[in-house]
Design goal:
The complex is a heterodimer. By secondary structure, chain A is mostly helical. Chain A is built from 13 helices and 2 strands; from the N terminus they run H-H-H-H-H-E-E-H-H-H-H-H-H-H-H. The radius of gyration of chain A is 20 Å and the shape is globular. Chain B is globular, with a radius of gyration of 19 Å. Classes of the chains: A mainly alpha, B mainly alpha. The A-B interface holds A 59, 102, 105-106, 108-111, 113-115, 117-119, 121-123, 125-126, 129-130, 133, 252-253, 256, 259-260, 263, 293-304, 306-308, 311 and B 35, 83, 86-87, 91-93, 95-97, 99-108, 110-111, 213, 216, 220, 223-224, 227, 256, 258, 261-262, 265, 269-270, 272-274, 276.
């Protein structure tokens, strides 16, 4: 894929995002709009994993760890400051640093990707347990309780920078979320076009060869992992703005869903994870309305079928199919 | 003095629990290199088998020790036939598919039996150490951990079946050339691992609450233990259990159970940074 086609893709996605940010707040009821914001924040999370897994070969099973850390940091910081201006950068910094520290231990220990999956999964489960056990006053951070199982219900929404009184209404939060998603997508695309991004893809394709060619595999993976942590943290902030932070952000079912989105949408694409995210969210919402089938059961079955039947994901399978059909048309 | 004895017993029982919940995974993951993320759900199914059969009037020891391995072993055989067999050699796909399986089991059991905590009270009562009461069942768990390890060791090391299993895991083609059917060996080994997990679920049912999601509490610990153990699956699992179990129990005593788990994980990650191939990648390399 040449740079021109990739630029065209970026422009197209940005246009779609702008259109969605303009049209959906007018078309949707408030409740549906808040739900849409949740989906968009989840899509940011999906892009973060799509980037590090699909293009860096880093199988992170605990992307929700950074998602939750972003949300919790944002909630705690904004409650303490009474203003979200500085809470946002801090909430982006914390998951990035945690990702860097965890990445240092994993990549510089040269742990193989399978072990990596297990360790990242364990990290998010431990955070889940920890967050669940923080009920009571001894766990207050400044003015903000951590709330244990119940989380922090009164998470303040974003306000205009340096103007705590001027909080954004849900319509504008949705616009912010859509713009964040578009920016993350564009940033990921641009990163992949730099030298750094191409080395990351080379490492994913053949780690030994990249290393023998003189690239520092560990450093590149570490940096990409930290970028993924940053984006996941951003997703967490957005999520905290439309729901509220609670230990479920770290939970196994969320951690599993992120993987499913990327897998169903297509590994090695950035639009695929977003599509996968929207489809699975729609499916989960639908499953939630069924009283006879447990949503976990449905998700698990979809997951197994996806691995066995469409191991490459929907988007690559569909693009292959279209490419084959058009080629047949030419001949 | 009494306090020291009680603490020592607690540490031993922590280690024993770790050995029990990890052994099945050591067989499936340590030997076969199949990443079974549904391991925790095999434990859960074992726990449910124990609780339900006891609730329907089965003898307690039959419900804890006999039925769970049989039921979960059979479930394991079905899972191997339908899912795992399609994915041998595709490690990451196996991991993803078994995760789906784990979610499906959690969902299915929730639908069938509800989301409530059930349990049987621990049998055998307790005995006194000075001013303290110690549950006899903890001692039974320690003995069970020793017995299970001994049985796994004996089967793998002393029986022809164990020899064939170890040989097939090392080099399936060579084993096939010598007239062994690798498919069958894999299927039987996986079922045996599942049966061990089921037995573990039955054994911990009286001390842990039996819930559809109880597996998630053990899966992380079991994987960390087996990974930290390294290539020699039995020795590795035992040594890693001893180390991690001690760290976790000591931190639980000093602080809270949550910090015990956090300490276990952090200790294991740092240990893997120092010994990336696990403990038996460096020490005791020639053991089983």
């Amino acid at each position: 894929m040449g740079p021109s086609r990739s630029s065209a893709e970026i422009v197209a996605v940005l246009l779609i995002a702008l259109f969605a940010a303009w049209a959906l707040p007018q078309a949707l009821e408030l409740f549906a709009l808040i739900n849409a914001t949740v989906w968009v924040s989840m899509a940011v999370l999906a892009v973060s994993l799509g980037l590090i897994w699909g293009f860096g070969g880093i199988l992170c099973f605990g992307q929700t760890a950074f998602f939750g850390l972003g949300g919790y940091t944002y909630a705690v910081a904004s409650i303490n400051f009474g203003d979200t201006t500085w809470a946002v950068p801090i909430a982006l910094l914390v998951p990035t640093l945690v990702a860097a520290a965890l990445g240092y231990l994993m990549f510089y220990g040269r742990i193989s990707d399978v072990y990596m999956g297990v360790i990242t999964l364990t990290t998010t489960l431990i955070l889940f347990k920890f967050a669940n056990s923080t009920a009571g006053d001894e766990w207050n951070i400044g003015a903000s309780p951590l709330g244990g199982f119940n989380g922090i219900p009164g998470t303040p929404p974003l306000n205009w920078p340096f103007d705590p009184g001027d909080q954004l209404p849900p319509e504008q939060i949705f616009v912010v979320a859509v713009l964040c998603l578009a920016l993350c997508y564009a940033a990921a695309k641009l990163i992949l076009r730099t030298r750094f991004g191409r080395v990351c893809v080379a490492i994913k394709e053949n780690e030994l060869r990249a290393e023998l060619l003189g690239y520092d595999v560990r450093l590149h993976k570490l940096a990409l992992f930290a970028i993924g942590g940053f984006m996941a943290g951003m997703a967490g902030i957005l999520f905290a703005n439309c729901v509220f932070v609670s230990p479920t952000m770290f939970s196994l079912s969320y951690a599993g869903q992120v993987i499913i989105w990327v897998l169903v949408g297509g590994i090695g694409t950035l639009v695929g994870p977003v599509i996968g995210c929207m489809l699975i969210q729609a499916l989960t919402t639908y499953a939630g309305t069924l009283s006879s089938v447990d949503p976990n059961l449905l998700l698990g079955v979809v997951f197994m079928l996806a691995v066995v039947a469409v191991p490459k994901g929907l988007l690559p399978t569909a693009t292959n199919l279209i490419a084959r059909l058009t080629r047949r048309g030419d001949a | 003095m009494d306090y020291a004895v009680v603490v020592a017993l607690q540490i031993l029982s922590g280690v024993a629990t770790l050995v029990i919940v990890s052994l099945g995974l050591a067989v499936v993951f340590g030997m076969m290199r199949v990443i079974n993320l549904a391991h925790g759900e095999f434990l859960m199914l074992g726990g449910y088998t124990a609780i339900l059969s006891y609730g329907h009037g089965a003898n307690l020891w039959l419900a804890i020790l006999v039925l769970p391995p049989i039921v979960v072993g059979l479930i394991g055989a079905v899972v191997e036939r339908l899912l795992i067999r399609r994915l041998y050699g595709r490690m990451i796909d196996t991991m993803l598919a078994t995760w789906g399986l784990s979610l499906a089991f959690i969902g299915g059991v929730t639908m069938l039996f509800g989301n409530s905590n059930t349990g049987v009270s621990a049998p055998l009562g307790s005995f006194e150490v000075g001013r303290f009461h110690v549950a006899s069942y903890d001692i039974f768990l320690m003995l069970a951990a020793c017995a299970l390890s001994a049985i796994v060791w004996a089967v793998l090391k002393l029986t022809p079946a164990g020899l064939i299993a170890r040989g097939t895991m090392q080099n399936a083609e060579m084993a096939a050339a010598l007239g062994v059917a690798p498919d069958r060996v894999y299927a039987i080994t996986f079922s045996a691992g599942a049966a061990l997990s089921g037995l573990a679920g039955g054994l911990i049912a009286p001390v842990a609450g039996v819930l559809p999601t109880m597996g998630t509490a053990y899966i992380a610990k079991a994987f960390i233990t087996v990974i930290t153990g390294g290539a020699a699956m039995l020795t590795g699992t035992l040594v890693a259990s001893a180390l991690l179990g001690t760290v976790s129990t000591v931190f639980t005593f000093v602080w809270t159970p949550v910090f015990g788990e956090v300490a276990l994980l952090v200790f294991a990650i740092v240990l893997l940074r120092l010994l990336p191939r696990g403990i038996t990648g460096r020490f005791l390399r020639r053991s089983l």
